[in-house]
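forwarding from the other thread:

> can someone predict this with coenzyme A?

sure thing
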Amino acid sequence: MRFVVEQMRAEHIPAITAIDRAVYPIPWPAHSYRSELHNRQAYYIVVCRVDADAHVEPPAEVGAGTRDESGGLFSRLTRLLRPGTALTPAEEVELRRVVGYAGLWMMVNEAHITTIAVAPEYQGRGLGELLLISLIDKAIELGALYVTLEVRVSNHVAQNLYRKYTFQQTGLRKRYYSDNGEDAYIMTTEALDSAHFQQVLAANRAALLERLARDE
Ligand SMILES: CC(C)(COP(=O)(O)OP(=O)(O)OC[C@H]1O[C@@H](n2cnc3c(N)ncnc32)[C@H](O)[C@@H]1OP(=O)(O)O)[C@@H](O)C(=O)NCCC(=O)NCCS
């Protein structure tokens, strides 16, 4: 399987909200994502599974000069499959299935991760890490000194992922989550420009790329 990371667009939102409902006790409504796309402090990405074998044979009875009796479907598929043809955003989404997403806000010199999630059936294959590295890269590009976030004290999977990228507990927000009154740890990276952080990032990136290439 092949995956690509790209910037979030409105066409991705239905798939994102479906994943949100599957993984979060308090999912965001679609309008929150729509307004985030207009937030100039925000940067959101998706990871999509690219179906390289997304190949659809035209129906035998529909050929050159034949009337398209498939309600326009055939001409649409022909455009989808013709190399170099510009696709509409909706068509692109059709060929690239959103399987995860993440976002950050730039707040002065800190990048604050607002969300990061992978669809349950795609978890455990490196995609959460791929999203996190992509956000860290963006944070560095935007001049952030640190990356920070909140995480449920019970969310050990996410905490493990963050620790792998030098995040450590730097605070506690009591009763942060309204569904069950759970506390949140505030976790923050080492300085992004420190030699140790850069070393960790480079080593993890190389290992992840190797893993994703192996699984392709
Ligand atoms: C947290 C989440 C994004 C991780 O994504 P993922 O694609 O499953 O994780 P990855 O396969 O990229 O794993 C990266 C690291 O996470 C940790 N991790 C992943 N699965 C784990 C598990 N089952 N148990 C313990 N640690 C785990 C490990 O540190 C792993 O690194 P490793 O492979 O070197 O051990 C995903 O589990 C998720 O969407 N959870 C629900 C939403 C959520 O809780 N988001 C975080 C909000 S703060």
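The pocket of coenzyme A is lined by residues 23, 116-118, 123-129, 151, 155, 157-158, 160-161, 164 (CB under 6 Å). thats all i got for now
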